Amino acid sequence: MSQDRVALYLQDAHSLQDGIDLVQYAESKGFEAVWQAESRLVRDAIVPMAAFAATTSKIKVGSGVTNNWTRNIGLLAATFLTLDDLAEDRIICGIGAWWDPLASKVGINRRKPLSAMRETVEVLRRLLNMENVTYHGEFHYVDGIQLDVVHGRTEPRNVPIYIGATGMKMMEMTGEIADGAVLNYLVNPAYNLQAMDALERGAKKAGRSIDEIDRPQLMICSVGDDRKAALDGARKMITQYLGQQPHLMKASGVSQELLDDIHQVLTWPATEEEIEGAMHLVPDDVVQMCTASGSPEEVKAKVREYIDNGATCPILYPLGDAKLMIDIFSDGYS
Question: Percentage of residues in the chain with pLDDT exceeding 90?
């Protein structure tokens, strides 16, 4: 078995039962973690995480990522304590700042995202450390609360906190306060170099080294023997994100001209027909710039590019045959 670190990313493309099967399969093939998405109004992260944690024995289970706006801080801490009760020392809390227009459409004003995240991480960490916490902040106001364990372990919990950062200010703060950064997908490997600089600046503020900050990275992986079908699978995904999350695509170096062309075809949320109609606008080089797509050799080479530019572990989002992807990466990528 290769020593290359590799993890699985699940969103909402599979039934929960199929997700459980894939996680068990990934565990059997040496994958170190599964990260469950919570992005659009589709599937929350916590229920699948509990299902994965309850049906495996070794693999780590992370939220990839939940957000710091929709759960009260007391509930957020209790949730991750409960998950840790289910799978001791295997739970990772990945948390991000969410995005618009989705947040505003459900009535959340994402003001001062850096301050809000800083407060969340500080209070959450103290609660999971089983401290009695009084904190009068701008976003969190708690008075003498602590996790009230009746049955189970009362000692501090080992639940690392990773921030899903995309922008460089959030990335710098991640380097300062978090255990790890969940680097985003649909960015090109050059983006990683900026991210490393920002993480390093933040780490220095806290008197630590960037090597102390884990840096797993989401990567869309569309692999198969039919190269064209593999590329088209990723092309469809990219087209959807060009329409729904242009901030991500801009960060990856996609031209404003392409974004404008796409936006003439797509509304939000984009319909299946609109996505199909806009796919032809996205050329192969953009697909391969931002995803690990194509033949097994091309896909492994792309993963190595991200690793060479600072990521510590690929978190692979399978498009197409997920078990084939797991098999391909079970013997590493270096």
Answer: 77
Lowest-confidence segment of 16-25, 55-64, 260-269 by average pLDDT? 260-269
Amino acid letter, residue 69: W
Residue-by-residue DSSP string for 53-98: HHT-SS-EEEES-EESSSS-HHHHHHHHHHHHHHSTT-EEEEEE--
Q: Per-residue confidence at 269, pLDDT binned at 50, 70, 90?
A: confident
CA distance 233 to 237: 7
Give φ, ψ of 107 to 5 degrees.
85, 20
Identify the pLDDT of residue 281. 86
Dig out the tokens for 245 from the structure. 């999350």
User: In whole angstroms, how far apart are CA 160 and each of 19, 22, 60, 157, 251?
Assistant: 23, 24, 11, 9, 27
What CATH number corresponds to the domain at position 115?
3.20.20.30
Count of structural domains within the chain: 2
Residue 1 inside a domain? The answer is: no
The pLDDT score that the predictor gives to residue 70 is 95
**Helices 296-308 and 322-329: crossing angle, nearest 10°?**
60
* Domain coverage including residue 193: 7-222+297-329
Assign 1 a pLDDT band (cuts: 50, 70, 90).
very low
Are 236 and 275 in contact by the 8 Å Cβ rule? The answer is yes
pLDDT at position 247 over 70:
no
Asked if residues 235 and 243 have their Cβ atoms less than 8 Å apart, the reply is: no
86 part of a folded domain = yes
The chain-wide mean pLDDT, for the chain, equals: 93
Phi and psi dihedrals of 214, rounded to 5? -70, 145
Q: Is 190 in the same domain as 256? A: no
The answer to pTM > 0.90 is: yes
63 with 38: CB under 8 angstroms? Answer: yes
